[in-house]
Design a protein that fits this description.
elongated, binds iron/sulfur cluster, TIM Barrel, two-stranded antiparallel ribbon, 11 helices, binds S-adenosyl-L-homocysteine, alpha/beta
């Protein structure tokens, strides 16, 4: 069955072509402005509603829901119709509500420190499957307004380019979200960064850098062998020139690996050249990577070092760690019987 969010407005128009035109508007408004399930769009006649409920179904079934941080962080695991699973995280802050969506079930990029990378790739998600995660979060956040969408869940959004760009466009056009409040985080698929720059959608771009020399970066992020730092830098420059927007670099601090003074110097030089913002992420524990995150003290020193070099820098909070919902901890695997098994961190590294 098709997800109601898979259809564009034109497709709804054709599906409802035997009905008066305003029915399409009613369905559309119900789905997008009011974030209703089809069964809940009471402005349309009951017979039509029942017909549509028979024909369309959400592609997400909830398998689990966990909360932390006093209820302000929630993680859902969803089962998709073919048995694949994805996770979605909703974070409520004082001034905004952000959903972190998955763009793929699993990920093929194999970054060593990331639970999703450790679990491997299952498949790409469809536009409807990503959009439904957002609209689910819209409902879950109510009465708060969902203000931000970040592609920082499972998967590499730029490896599923056509879906990611379609979803961004539709969130902007159909849901009316500000492009600046849509953030794509990429491990550095250089040609896709350039392609996204040409889309004319001023979204926020975050690049998972983690190391500013090729040797270390290739160890952490295997894709660096294909698109080394010089190539990635070229793509970032193209992004800045084409969109007029800055990039931000994400850097998960790993004890003794990329938190050294040498690493600080290399990052400062690159971030300064590109006028990039740096977002430091305390490493979140994952089951398959036993290297420790940097101490809190080292994280602060590293931040201060960047500041002294004139770099704009922030430290990301570690929300959701206790429920394995923080950055890099999302991995939901199923066995043949479709019983979901969550990968939990072995230990908190603080
Ligand atoms: N594939 C994309 C987006 C999903 S990952 C990307 O890699 O950018 C979202 C962010 O979490 C990335 O910056 C990623 O590097 C980071 N991350 C992965 N594993 C992590 C971990 N164990 N601790 C902290 N951050 C991690
Ligand atoms: Fe994939 Fe991003 Fe995890 Fe790397 S960090 S394995 S690109 S999800």
């Amino acid at each position: 069955m098709t997800s109601p969010y898979e259809f564009t407005k034109e497709q709804w128009g054709s599906r409802l072509s035997e009905h008066p035109r305003f029915r399409t508007d009613q369905v559309w408004r119900g789905l997008w402005n009011e974030a209703r399930e089809l069964s809940d769009i009471t402005s349309i006649p009951r017979s039509l509603r029942e017909e549509l409920v028979e024909e369309f179904a959400s592609s997400l079934s909830i398998v689990s829901h966990v909360e932390s941080d006093g209820g302000s962080t929630s993680k859902w695991a969803f089962l998709l119709p073919d048995g694949a699973t994805v996770e979605t995280v909703l974070m409520l802050y004082e001034d905004r509500a952000t959903v972190c969506v998955s763009s793929q079930a699993g990920c093929a990029m194999g970054c060593t420190f990331c639970a999703t990378g450790q679990a491997g790739f299952t498949r790409h998600l469809s536009p409807g499957e990503v959009l439904e995660q957002v609209m689910f979060a819209v409902r879950a956040a109510a009465p708060r307004r969902l203000s931000n969408v970040v592609f920082m869940g499972m998967g590499e959004p730029l490896a599923n380019y056509s879906v990611t760009s379609a979803v961004l466009r539709r969130l902007h056009q159909d849901r009316g979200m500000s492009a600046r409040h849509l953030t794509v985080s990429t491990v550095g698929v250089a040609p896709a960064i350039e392609r996204l720059a040409r889309e004319g959608l001023p979204v926020t771009l975050a690049v998972s850098l983690h190391a500013a020399n090729d040797e270390t970066r290739s160890e952490l992020v295997p894709l660096n062998r294909r698109y080394p730092i010089a190539r990635l830098r070229e793509a970032c420059q193209y992004w800045i020139e084409t969109t007029g927007r800055r990039v931000s670099f994400e850097w998960a601090l790993i004890d003794g690996v990329n938190d050294t003074d040498r690493a600080l110097g290399e990052l400062s030089a690159l971030a300064w050249d590109l006028k990039a913002h740096v977002n430091l992420i305390p490493l979140n524990p994952t089951p398959g990577y036993l290297v420790r995150g940097s101490s809190k003290e080292r994280v602060r020193e590293f931040r201060d070092g960047l500041r002294e070099s004139g770099i704009a820098v922030s430290i990301r909070d570690t929300r959701g760690r206790s429920i394995a919902a923080a950055c890099g901890q999302l991995a939901y695997v199923t066995d043949g019987r479709r019983r979901a098994v969550s990968l939990r961190p072995r230990a908190e590294s603080r």
